[in-house]
Amino acid sequence: MTVPIRVLVCDDQALIRTGFATIIDAQADLEVVGECGDGRAAVDLAHRLNPDIVVMDVRMPVLDGIEATRLLAGAGVAHPVKVLVVTTFNLDEYVYQALRAGASGFLLKDAPPAQLLHGIRTVAAGAALLAPEVTRQLVGRYAARIRPTEGTPGDIALTPRELEVLRHIADGLSNSEIAATLVISQETVKTYVSRILTKLDLRDRVQAVVYAYRRGLVT
To answer: Which PANTHER family match (predicted)?
Structure first.
């Protein structure tokens, strides 16, 4: 049998926690290993239980979900945990803050259960949940904040083709669109994307977009 994806659910509303846990535990490939109602408890439980993914609310007591995400998945964390932020607040600022803190995905609580399950599986598999065009629009809107120079394109340890693929990722192109643009197969694109993430020590495409903006690869 396949080992189930281990999920920690963090939300300050008990009814929502119970609802999420019920939906998740009903799936053969998912398992809720813990629940909590504030960000500090989420950080403590994640360190103790070592879940594959944390489903995190934004507004919570003691420690909010953004800061908890930063402590679990932010820059410099030795053993980052994948975080899927789920909130009632559909504000660009929350999305931006969550992604900058290290979250790999963002969902609204009113999304249907199927979307929640898809989001958990997608993030657990190492992919970003946001569609490429959404990522491009979001990060582009806050590009001025994340564009402080951190070197030049010449300092980046990528081949010219990998740099080209990275720019296309930052422009919001999907793998199929990159393949069509560069006249290569989608499998080749996937290989390039994997190499880029590995070389730059990035977790997913969201981080790749932010990286590209920081290094001035896109405008």
So the answer is: TRANSCRIPTIONAL REGULATORY PROTEIN NARL-RELATED, TWO-COMPONENT RESPONSE REGULATOR
**Per residue of the chain (219 residues), what is the pLDDT tens digit?**
578 999 999 999 999 999 999 999 999 999 999 999 999 999 999 999 999 999 999 889 889 999 999 999 887 788 889 999 888 766 666 777 787 788 888 888 888 898 889 889 988 877 666 645 455 556 556 555 555 555 555 567 889 999 999 988 887 777 888 999 999 998 999 899 989 988 988 877 777 877 887 787 776
- Residue environment code for 49-64, b if the CB has 16+ CB neighbours within 10 A, otherwise e: eebbbbbbbbebeebb
Reduced to 3 states (helix: H, G, I; strand: E, B; else coil), residue 153 is helix
| Separation between Cα atoms, residue 5 and residue 100, nearest integer Å | 24
Rounded Cα gap, residues 39 and 88, in angstroms = 16
Alpha carbons 210 and 159: distance in angstroms, whole number: 19
Is the whole model's pTM more than 0.70, yes or no?
A: no
